[in-house]
Amino acid sequence: MESHHAQLADNLARVRERVAAAAESVGRRPDEVELVAVTKYVGVELTAALLTAGCSVLGESRPQQLWEKAADPGLATARWHLIGHLQRNKVRRTLPVVELIHSVDSWRLLESINECAAELGRTTRVLLEVNCSGDAAKHGLTGDELRRMLPDLPKLEHVSVCGLMTMAALEGGEAVAETNFAALLQLRDDVQREAPADIRLSHLSMGMSHDFEAAIRQGATLVRIGSLLFEGAAS
């Protein structure tokens, strides 16, 4: 396992170098971009090794896997993000263990989060997922649906909507991905001007292992990277 630790540390260093280079290429500071390590394909041991290597913000796509890993004593220092689809019947168990939910895609889900957060005596930070690729198989709001939500967001006293998230089209490569990311940036800038004064859409979650540099060039503040971090390390 020692060699795996060394491999993970090397992978993490190389990814951080690429994040920094992409940010600096468009005049941004590297510390404006947070790396979310996606651990859905690896077990607890390898996830713990990544923590030891210095990556503390971890993302899971499935609530059940998130619950299991968050309960493991070896991962007690992790800061968890849910990056995948969340059903309303899984909200109550998810809220106590997450720092941020990236993937809120309906008003009904927002209401459920608000209700459960109120019962827990907390405020939950969320991003609203937008479908910028037009792929019918993907979750996410349309731009019009997002705009219709804006006036009602302040009613959710236990939810802090702090940005937007998207996934690029599966086909078309980095050029299409960058177009999708640019669309989210433009949408954010447009709706921010229309939003209630206390709604600040500061964060953009976009970009994965194959397209995160394009996302950073288009303003990503959170990039969700999995496979690049675990190359050469067995789970």
List keywords for this structure.
235 residues; alpha/beta; TIM Barrel; 9 helices; 8 strands; 16% strand
Secondary-structure map:
Blueprint: H1 2-25, E1 34-38, H2 44-53, E2 57-60, H3 63-70, E3 79-82, H4 91-94, E4 100-104, H5 107-120, E5 124-129, H6 143-149, E6 159-165, H7 173-194, E7 203-205, H8 212-217, E8 222-225, H9 227-230
Parallel strand pairs: 1-2, 1-8, 2-3, 3-4, 4-5, 5-6, 6-7
Strand proportion: 15-25%
Distance between the termini: 10 Å
Fraction of residues in helices? 40-55%
Please name the CATH topology.
TIM Barrel
Structure characterization notes:
The protein is of the alpha/beta class and 235 residues long. 42% of the residues lie in helices and 16% in strands. The protein is built from nine helices and eight strands. It has helices at residues 2-25, 44-53, 63-70, 91-94, 107-120, 143-149, 173-194, 212-217, 227-230; strands at residues 34-38, 57-60, 79-82, 100-104, 124-129, 159-165, 203-205, 222-225. Helix 1 packs across helix 2 (44-53). It is globular.
Brief characterization of the structure:
This protein has 235 residues and is of the alpha/beta class. Helices cover 42% and strands 16% of the residues.
